[in-house]
Write a structure and sequence with these properties.
315 residues, globular, alpha/beta
């Protein structure tokens, strides 16, 4: 029997807002296959807290390395090299606005390749308001062809299902939509595999509408949807406010009105189940993979993912 994914979405909202307590397994249509092949991210300082990534992540997992302004490139490269040694595929961030010039970009690429055999990257504008130098967007990094010349086999770009006020101050999506169309057209002439990895979200309905909308507009890049891993509700609300997550923030705030919910850790199981149900109903749905933001810690997110994969392994 098929899954009524719209009913599942509405039940998910009731569960997340605290209005309903789900029966065990009642909101989980084939979630394991949707989680399989997930990616996750870390930073150099948080990676130092993990004794051995191979003890918590499946071999070959893609691990993004977030580059926060002020982080020395030596720390970034050392983290990538460690991940490679432990059996993972490091994908460092290249934030355009903190890269001063083409010489700096080439130096970073050479270091990553020479010390960690890196051949994939996430290109994004970056979290600073004023560019440090010549670059201010992922488009400019792509136009430089530095990654093509270096033979990178995979390039990812950012997606914003709930908008990005840094790019569209009016709260619309005209600029982000235009940028995605440009990147999609660029991908047609690139030797690298390209995909969109999104900001995290907590509400499936706007995600589904956004993914369908960009596909209808001709953006045919696969989407890797960002999901927050297990964390305290207060932690998620703080990150949601800082990152400008809109409709999802309202869902979290509604849940927070019941003080008992503040004592329970959030898990993304029901949100992922709603997206998996939509994928089952429409196999052409362009969300192809899950990307975990470990807002409550890498070990917690990795443990949640392992639990879903264990389910599929035991059938």
């Amino acid at each position: 029997m098929g899954v009524n994914f719209m009913a599942l979405i509405h039940r998910f909202r009731s569960v997340l807002s605290g209005e309903e307590t789900p029966r065990d397994g009642s909101l989980r249509p084939d979630i394991s296959s949707f989680v399989e092949g997930f990616s996750i991210e870390t930073m150099p300082r948080t990676a130092q807290k993990i004794a051995d990534f191979s003890a918590i992540l499946p071999a070959g997992t893609r691990v993004y390395i977030a580059h926060i302004d002020g982080t020395p490139i030596e720390d970034m490269v050392a983290t990538a090299a460690r991940l490679r040694r432990e059996g993972f595929n490091p994908m460092p961030h290249f934030p355009a606005r903190i890269i001063r010039d083409r010489a700096t970009l080439d130096d970073w690429i050479a270091r990553y390749q020479g010390e960690a055999a890196v051949d994939q990257a996430l290109l994004l504008g970056g979290g600073v308001t004023t560019p440090h130098g010549d670059f201010d967007s992922a488009i400019q990094l792509l136009e430089s062809d530095a990654f093509g010349e270096a033979g990178f086999r995979r390039l990812h770009v950012a997606g914003h299902p709930e908008g990005n006020r840094d790019i569209d101050p009016d709260g619309g999506s005209r600029n982000v939509d235009s940028a995605l169309k440009w990147k999609s057209n660029f991908a047609k002439h690139s030797d690298a595999q390209m995909a969109i990895v999104t900001q995290f979200t907590f509400d499936p309905e706007p995600v589904i509408a956004w993914a369908n909308g960009i596909k209808a507009a001709g953006v045919d890049l696969p989407v890797h949807i960002g999901i927050a891993g297990p964390a305290k509700l207060q932690t998620l609300i703080r990150f949601a406010v800082a990152c400008g997550v809109g409709p999802s923030l309202k869902v979290l705030q509604k849940r927070a009105t019941d003080v008992t919910n503040l004592l329970l850790p959030y898990e993304p199981t029901d949100l992922v189940a709603a997206l998996a149900a939509h994928k089952a109903a429409d196999p052409s749905f362009n969300i192809e993979q899950l990307h975990l933001f470990p807002l409550g810690g890498i070990a917690a997110s990795a443990g949640w993912a392992r639990a879903q994969l264990k389910d599929v392994a035991h059938g």
